[in-house]
Amino acid sequence: MTTLDAPRAPFRRSRATRSNFELYSWLFMRGSGVVLIALVFGHLFVNLVAGDGIKAIDFAFVGGKWSSPFWQTWDLLMLWLAELHGVNGVRTVINDYAEKDSTRIVLKTLLLVSAAVVLVLGTLVIFTFDPCPVGEPANLLPSFCTQ
């Protein structure tokens, strides 16, 4: 039978749990959320409102955007913050609802592995994207490509 401490008993924190990880995680969620709102609305404004709207978004548009280090950095920051923000939220849900330690460990391991794969692949796509592939028809390429 499990006994509970009296409601007014002082909280005793063990030495093993003396970490501020959850505090920093909570602060990260608030900070990354604010930054993500600015990044996402900036992204939506540039892609959908400024210019010709959604009909202008094609391979050439993305190629032109990602030829600029500014937009590469913008999209990379948006990818990383969104991924880490989401992973932190799912980690919290796993902590709240996984009852067995073994289940919690398996779920968190799967979460971290999948997050690492998405971050690595997304980063590679952003930085290795070639807007001027060799051998493609000129009418499909952005105007800045010289072939």
Automatic annotation (TrEMBL):
Q: Which protein are we looking at? A: Succinate dehydrogenase hydrophobic membrane anchor subunit
Q: Where are the transmembrane segments?
A: 21-46, 106-129
Q: Which InterPro entries match?
A: SQR/QFR_C/D, SuccDH_FuR_B_TM-su
Species annotation: Angustibacter luteus
Identify the Pfam families for this entry: Sdh_cyt
Provide the protein's localization: Membrane
Q: Provide the alphabetized UniProt keywords.
A: Heme, Iron, Membrane, Metal-binding, Transmembrane, Transmembrane helix
Lineage, top ranks? Bacteria, Bacillati, Actinomycetota, Actinomycetes, Kineosporiales
| Chief location bin | membrane
